[in-house]
Structures are given as structure tokens and as C-alpha cells.
Write a structure and sequence with these properties.
The complex is a heterodimer of chains A (167) and B (573). Chain A is α+β, with helices and mostly antiparallel strands and 167 residues long. Chain A has helices spanning 17-28, 57-66, 98-107, 128-138; strands at residues 4-12, 31-39, 45-53, 70-75, 81-92, 111-115, 119-126, 143-148, 152-155. Chain A has two domains: 4-79, ACT domain (Alpha-Beta Plaits), CATH 3.30.70; 84-149, Alpha-Beta Plaits (2-Layer Sandwich), CATH 3.30.70.1150. The model of chain A has no long low-confidence stretch (mean pLDDT 91). The chains are: A alpha+beta (167), B alpha/beta (573).
């Protein structure tokens, strides 16, 4: 993960802004590991959370800043950030294994959201490590399919540092 | 209130921006915009190819400092503009391109002459627009001119669907206030960094001021001269900065880079402090960056923060406009020096001027009856014009000789395609330059390979009455390709030879409505050039048939270290 950097970008919510960001990444040879976009706190603004693979994150942030529709770029790697990701994961759960799967999932507060004849689908919310750990736990049962939302993140307020447990 | 069509509003918006000339080529989707142009005071120059229209706008912008405007239709019209947009983006040239688009109802349907112009041009423009809301047009045009000409200048494209062009709106003057929350270029350098920069400069024993195209873009040449003199700094001017500092000045060490002056290359290599202003550590300047000026600290001034630290780490980064920051540096240094002199650095100054006199650029010999040397022809052109001309070059050997041998003393007298290396740039860019500076003697110095790429624009020059002059350095080869094949590909001249006597450039000139002359021997050169200089009622093409084996030196092979400069053919043996 040494080349991975976490960046949030506040952009104007205009048609094509995502294309501008993606085109710039492609042109400059930066690799997008994950990307999540949604409306931000004010109308007409969107916030992107990007995990990027690049040797020099400063170039990434500067090139992002250079786009006319970009308002603010914050690099969160190495700073105190709240990171979340949602994963939907469908695992094999034949009748005889079902309670074992559910027990294991309970430890991670994974929520069963769909139950089929031979599978259970869980919703897991957490930081990337939690999702990775849960995936490892489920592998022995057989993972049928999974999808991740892409990471979202916000910088922590400096004053909240002592109250970290809340987050 | 009177309602006008978007097409009329577009032309009105261009007039509002003070546009006096535009370069373009009509076609289906842009036809509505061409109709009100018929009644406008804006002069339209009909290029013979959209790439030509784009380069004309660039030549106009580089000669005048004002925004150049070009216009094309949808599909192939727009794709033909891409090369000029990419060129303008690389060399930070302020142009606004207007393209027609298929009607909004047809976008995405693979309609006739549809291309995804907006998407295609995204990576080759500073910003671009696809206008879908007709009422925005006056403000979009105003914004486009603002973006093109401020901060780091560059190309901006406006794509206009045909149905939008036909919509009617109530005209409103653009408010003049551009509201772009994400675009606030920093022009003023940080005072603390300016202070640190002056400290480093005062302490430096072997400084070099590395002046780039940003000096010309920001009009900082006068400040540069004052600062270099006050601080007693040797100066190098990059390919994009030729003319930013007088070649005739004792502090000037010449052009650095792959085909630069030994004095400029070596001074940078041995320097302990590089003061880069409006320059970007391009690979053609640095060679292998890991071996470039390894002992030097770096002060880097640029209006584009992304250029600082991109190639070379800066010890003192200063984001700001070259002219403004040079003003700040001048003020600070004046204060620090008081009534003292700047450091004399006599050892260093003697060393660099020693290099300069020991290794002058010119290393050819013109024998009276021998093959014509390209360098001789260019030096003769300098003499016959008294150096009083705007020189526009294509790309290749002729470009390097024109950059090396001409003595530039003023900004905006040297126009070339630096970053993109666009062959065929010279002819259309010269036409644009002449439109912008009609009283100047505009000479394109071109290669035969380059000329054949865009020569049809001479028809445009002739029919529109634009008396540019073109000197074709005809070595009937793609000279720089041939040079590389000679040096690095065992003289296997694959696909680099052009035909010897075809075309006949004199006949071609006449057929295109231009005067045509030819020089084949040394004594023919000056008289032919004198004749060309005396013609001002039509374009002139002068063909000089030169030695195809002449090579450009000095040379630092691509990717090599700037410690190893090949000075001449003899160095290779």
C-alpha cells in the first residue's frame, strides 16, 4: 500500500467533471484504486474520495487542483481521517453451515440483508481493514460474489482527537 | 427587448472581447455562426485546413500577446484542430477555439460529422465547454477569454451544437466578473520565499538564471534584464524564451539544452544555484534529470504550481507571475544591497565567459564553390534583414539553426513549436503573426519536410493578401531524422529521404500566387534574399538548396547526461 494515497476532492457538480478527473489521471499515468463520488454539503458541489496509486502524490494533488472545476484538494494519507467503505458479500451457507456463518458474521456486526436457499448476503460497513478481515473470515465458506462501494473519507476535526472512540 | 440568435450573440461576444481577426474554415454544423460573421468587422481568414487555422491563431497570439481565435465545424473540422490545441497547450499559448457540433438531439447518435469534441479535447485544452444552455453564451465566451489569457495561458475550446446556435436570446453584455471558484491563479510570490531566494542568490558562487517561456508570456523581459544586471547573474534562455533576454548582452550565455550552447549547458551543469523563472525543466533542457546540475540548489518561480517539483525538487518554490515575482525580487535585492555592489563572483564570471568565447555556436565552413550550408543561409537572412524580423520556425534542424544563429534581442520575435514539436507549424503561424503585426517583416524559416505538411496555407496567404516570407532550407531530406539515423541507426536512412527536385518550389510558389526564388550557391543567397525583402505585395517563397549531410551541433544525445556535449562531427570520430 506504500504507493496508495487517499485524497478528497471538492468539485463543482457540473456535467463531465468526473470525466475531467478520470482523463487527467489517465493522461498523467496515475492509477485510480478506488473512487467514490456524491453530493457534498452545499448544493452544486460534489465530493470525491479517491485512492490513487502514484509515486508522487504531490503531483496528483497539484494536477487535480489545476482543473478549473476543482475547489479544494486534501490529501488524507498519513493524517487523521475517518474512512468508511460498504461491502455487500454473498457467501455459501448451506443449512448445516448457516449458524456457523451467522456467528462469525455477528463478531463483525455484519448485517444479513438477503438469505437464499444456499447463500447469505451480508452488508458490512467499516474501514478497509475491517472489510479485508471479514473477507478472510468468510473465504473458507466460499465467497460467491462481492461488491465494494469504494472508500469515502473525511479529515477528523483536530479538537475531536481525544474523543476518537466516538468515530 | 431585441432577441438575437446565439450565432449573432457569439460574434457579438467576440467583438466584445476585442477580436479583430479570426482564422477558420466553415462547414455544416458551424454555418449558423458564419452567417453573422458576414456583417461583422471581424476579419475572417479562410485557412485551407483547420490545423492551419489553429496554428495561425497561435502565431497571432505569440506575436501579439493577445488571444488568438480559430473556428471550425464539427467532426473532422474539430479533429483537425487537435494538433494545434495540443501545441498551444504544450507551449502555453492563449487561444480560443470555437467548434460546431451536431444538434443536441443528435449528440450520441453517430450523426453525420459528429465527433466527441469535448471529450477528445479535454486533455489538450486548459478548459473546454459544450454549451447546452443558450443563454450562457456571452458569459461562456468571456470566461473562455479570461481562462485562455490569465494564469498559465493556454487553449480553451467552446463546442456549440447547431440547434443552440439557432436559438434566440436577449443579448446581455458579459458582466466582466468571472465567477470561477476553482480558478484563482496566484500571481504574487510569497514574501518569505522571495527573501530566502535573495539570500541564496547573494550567497551563491556559481549562479545561473534559467529563463523560460514564462518570461515572454508575462511580459517580464524588462524586469529580467534589470534583475540579472543588478544581481550580476549569467542568463540562459530556453528555446521558448529566445528573445526574452538580449543575445547581445555580456551576461547572456545562450540557449541551453540538447542543441544548446556549450556555455549555457555547462554553466547550468556546474552551477550551485539555478534560478528558474517560467521554465519547466523540460527533458530537452535537462537531458537525464538525475545527472542534471547535480550540485545546484533550485529557486523555481512559476505561475503553475504543478510545474514546481514535477521534474526537479525546488529548494525555494515560488508560485507567482514571472513579472510580478521579478519585481518583488528586484525590490528585495535593491533593499538588501543598499549602496553595495552585488557579489562580483569574478572566478565564475570569467569561467563562463571563457566557455562562451571558446565554444561559439557556429561550426560550419562555407566554401565559395561548395555545397550551400544551411547555417550560412540563415546567417545571410539575418544580415539582409538586419535582424529586424519576426522569425517563425517549423520543427527540426532548421529550427535549431534558426534558434542558435539568429541574434534575438526582443521578445515575441521568435515563434516556434517548442514542447509539441509540431512539424508544419511555421507557414500558418507566420501568417497569424503577420496578421497580428502587419508592419513587421515576418520570415518563416522552414524545412522542406515541414513546408510540405502545411504549404497549402501559402494559397491562403496569397489570396488573403498576407505578405509573409518563407525560407525553405531544402536538404531534400527529413534532416533531423536523417541526423539521428546517421548517429544512432548505422546510417540506415529509413523513410527520411524526400525527392530531390520535386516539387519545383519556384513553380509551386508561382502556382500558389506567391513570388518564388531559388538559391543554390553561396553567392546567390544574399541577392535572392534582398529581392525577397523588397517584395511586400504578395507572399514570397525562397528555396535554398543545401548540403543534406550538415548536422546540428552541439548535441547532447536524448536521455544522456549534459556533462557530455558533442561539439562537432569531429567529436564523433
Amino acid at each position: 500500500m506504500s504507493n496508495h494515497h487517499l485524497i478528497t476532492v471538492l468539485v463543482e457538480d457540473k456535467p463531465g467533471v468526473l470525466a475531467r478527473v478520470a482523463t487527467m489521471f489517465a493522461r498523467r499515468g496515475f492509477n485510480i484504486h478506488s473512487l467514490a463520488v456524491g453530493p457534498a454539503e452545499e448544493p452544486n458541489l460534489s465530493r470525491m474520495t479517491i485512492v490513487v496509486e502514484a509515486p508522487d502524490v504531490e503531483q496528483v494533488t497539484k494536477q487535480l487542483q489545476k482543473l478549473i472545476n476543482t475547489l479544494k484538494v486534501v490529501e488524507l494519507s498519513g493524517t487523521d481521517a475517518i474512512e468508511r467503505e460498504v461491502m455487500l458479500i454473498r457467501v455459501n451457507a448451506e443449512v448445516e453451515k448457516r449458524s456457523s456463518v451467522l456467528d462469525a458474521a455477528a463478531v463483525f456486526k455484519a448485517k444479513p440483508v438477503d438469505v437464499g436457499a444456499t447463500t447469505i448476503t451480508f452488508e458490512v460497513v467499516g474501514d478497509p481493514q475491517k472489510l479485508a478481515d471479514f473477507l478472510e473470515l468468510m473465504r473458507p465458506y466460499g465467497v460467491v460474489s462481492l461488491v465494494k462501494s469504494g472508500r469515502i473519507a473525511l479529515a477528523r476535526e483536530p479538537k475531536a482527537r481525544n474523543l476518537r472512540a466516538i468515530g | 427587448m431585441e432577441r438575437i440568435s446565439i450565432s449573432q450573440a457569439l460574434i457579438k461576444a467576440l467583438e466584445f472581447e476585442g477580436v479583430d481577426v479570426m482564422f477558420g474554415h466553415p462547414g455544416g454544423a458551424i454555418l449558423p455562426a458564419y452567417d453573422p460573421l458576414y456583417d461583422s468587422n471581424i476579419r475572417h481568414i479562410l485557412a485551407r485546413h483547420e490545423q492551419g487555422a489553429g496554428h495561425m491563431a497561435e502565431g497571432y497570439a505569440q506575436a501579439t500577446g493577445r488571444v488568438g481565435v480559430c473556428m471550425a465545424t464539427s467532426g473532422p473540422g474539430a479533429t483537425n484542430l487537435i494538433t494545434s490545441l495540443a501545441n498551444a497547450y504544450m507551449d502555453s499559448i492563449p487561444i480560443v477555439a470555437i467548434t460546431g457540433q451536431v444538434p443536441t438531439t443528435a449528440i450520441g447518435n453517430d450523426a453525420f460529422q459528429e465527433a466527441h469534441t469535448w471529450g477528445i479535447t479535454m486533455p489538450t485544452t486548459k478548459h473546454n465547454y459544450l454549451v447546452t444552455n443558450a443563454a450562457e453564451i456571452p458569459d461562456v465566451v468571456h470566461e473562455a477569454f479570461h481562462l485562455a489569457s490569465t494564469g498559465r495561458p493556454g487553449p480553451v475550446l467552446i463546442d456549440l451544437p447547431k440547434d443552440i446556435l439557432n436559438t434566440e436570446v436577449v443579448w446581455h453584455d458579459p458582466t466582466g466578473v468571472v465567477d470561477l471558484p476553482g480558478y484563482k491563479p496566484t500571481t504574487q510570490g510569497h514574501p518569505l520565499q522571495v527573501k530566502t531566494a535573495i539570500e541564496l542568490i547573494q550567497q551563491s558562487e556559481r549562479p545561473v538564471l534559467y529563463a523560460g517561456g514564462g518570461i515572454i508570456a508575462s511580459g517580464a523581459h524588462a524586469e529580467l534584464l534589470k534583475f540579472a544586471e543588478l544581481a550580476n547573474l549569467p542568463v540562459v534562455t530556453t528555446l521558448m524564451a529566445r528573445g526574452a533576454f538580449p543575445d547581445t548582452h555580456p551576461l547572456h550565455l545562450g540557449m541551453p539544452g540538447m542543441h544548446g550552447f556549450y556555455s549555457a549547458i555547462t554553466a547550468m551543469q556546474k552551477s550551485d544555484l539555478l534560478i528558474a523563472i517560467g521554465a519547466r525543466f523540460d527533458d530537452r533542457v535537462t537531458g537525464d534529470p538525475s545527472h542534471f546540475a547535480t550540485g545546484a540548489k533550485v529557486i523555481h518561480v512559476d505561475i503553475d504550481p504543478a510545474e514546481i517539483g514535477k521534474i526537479r525538487k525546488a529548494d525555494v518554490p515560488i508560485v507567482g507571475d514571472a513579472r510580478t515575482v521579478l519585481g518583488q525580487l528586484l525590490a528585495r535585492l535593491t533593499k538588501v544591497l543598499g549602496s553595495d555592489d552585488p557579489p562580483a563572483r569574478s572566478g565564475w564570471m570569467e569561467t563562463v565567459s571563457g566557455w562562451k568565447s571558446a565554444h561559439p555556436i557556429s561550426s560550419y565552413e562555407q566554401e565559395p564553390g561548395g555545397l550551400l550550408k544551411p547555417q550560412y543561409v540563415i546567417e545571410e537572412l539575418f544580415k539582409t534583414t538586419g535582424g529586424d524580423a519576426i522569425v517563425v520556425a517549423g520543427v527540426g534542424q532548421h529550427q535549431m539553426w534558426a534558434a542558435q544563429l539568429w541574434k534575438y534581442t526582443k521578445p515575441r520575435t521568435w515563434i516556434n513549436s517548442g514542447g509539441a514539436g509540431t512539424m508544419g507549424f511555421a507557414v500558418p503561424a507566420a501568417i497569424g503573426a503577420k496578421m497580428g503585426m502587419p508592419d513587421e517583416n515576418v520570415w518563416a524559416i522552414d524545412g522542406d519536410g515541414c513546408f510540405q505538411m502545411t504549404m497549402q496555407e501559402m494559397i491562403c496567404a496569397a489570396t488573403e493578401g498576407i505578405p509573409v516570407k518563407v525560407l525553405i532550407i531544402n536538404n531534400h531530406n527529413l534532416g533531423m531524422v536523417r541526423q539521428w539515423q546517421r548517429l544512432f541507426y548505422n546510417e540506415r536512412f529509413s523513410a527520411s529521404e524526400l525527392t530531390d527536385h520535386t516539387p519545383d518550389y519556384v513553380k509551386l510558389a508561382e502556382a500558389m500566387g506567391c513570388a518564388g526564388f531559388r538559391a543554390e550557391t553561396a553567392d546567390e543567397v544574399a541577392p535572392v534574399l534582398e529581392k525577397a525583402n523588397s517584395i511586400n505585395d504578395r507572399p514570397v517563397i525562397v528555396e535554398a538548396r543545401v548540403d543534406p549531410d550538415e548536422m546540428v551541433f552541439p548535441m547532447v544525445p536524448a536521455g544522456g547526461s549534459n556533462d557530455v556535449v558533442i561539439l562537432s562531427k569531429e567529436d564523433l570520430e
